[in-house]
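seq:
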Amino acid sequence: MKKIFPAVFFLLGAAACADRSLDRDIVKVFERHSYREYAPQKITELLRSRGAAGLKLLDRHAEVVASRKELGELPSGGHISSGLLAAEDGGGVYAAKVFRGSPAEAAGLRDGDRILEIDGVKAVPAALSERLRGRAFKFKAERRTLKGPVVMIADVKREKFSFPAVFGLYAPGSRTAFVKIGMFYQGSGSSVASGLETLSRLGAKKVIFDLRDCAGGAPDEAAGLLAAFAPKAGPVLEIKSRHKGYSRLIEAPGRGRFAGLKAAVLVNSGTAMTGEVFAAALRELSGAVVIGGLTKGEVSLTRTFRLGRSRKGLTLTVARLFPPSGADLEENGLEPGLKIALSPGREAELKAAWASSGETVLLADPVYKKALEALTK
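struct:
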């Protein structure tokens, strides 16, 4: 037994030294990168009394991880859909959006086609919702051309297809563009701006941005789009930190090309990061009406840093996103100007319909309908 004790003491001592070394590395990362400044002694005391979990008392995003976190790939699409998004107009329905590469496009349908019948039944919203549950169906549709209306038959099969993360459509009856943004990925801002340019030429005078369950994304992309709605030169979005390297103020060079468009933004508890700051900024810049539910209240930009020579890393907040007013949305969220209270079951049902690329989701979306009403006032 006497021979074992020294070895045990050696192992315990080595572990203690490793812990102290890791603690020192954590303190250094906080000093060099943390959004807020904390006394090194306070960090050390928290580590000794509560372990790594105690860091959340300083930064709710702080976490010691097994290895450096990498940005994961977006989940690939795997839903069963025709790639058609139907909308209502005057009691009838039409193809508000037929996505490229979709089964609906392959069957010959195009944006704006009037859906007259589905499987021989008159295509009213209720009938469409009921019959678009199988794997195949027959559309009778009408397309307006320069030579007059053309009636066509389209055999559509529902296959593996998902709506893209960012897309837009035009509702000619209300002269409203609808833009859904699931994430501000690289190039999305210019893509949306280009699409809005096209829709404006078609006659769009209003725009609805759907940022429900928007996971965030690149602040630069959101800022570029915000600049297009700015009434004059000035700030559109700010990244704040006590460290100069992380801080940046992004400004519009002048009046944006879409400054005259009347706008609404749809949000919910899943709207986070760049999404909720975009909504707040658009309200401040263009008077956009924000509709839906309280946003997530998570606008902290985090990074993961390797701790010394270990295989562990520390994730913590390095900066926060702010709209032009400087309002801090972290943990507070953005309160909509027009709140839509949905039951938990209805909200989950609506979210699932969008997530599964449901063809009739717009027909039964009360938040979208409320936005159309709000923009007519």
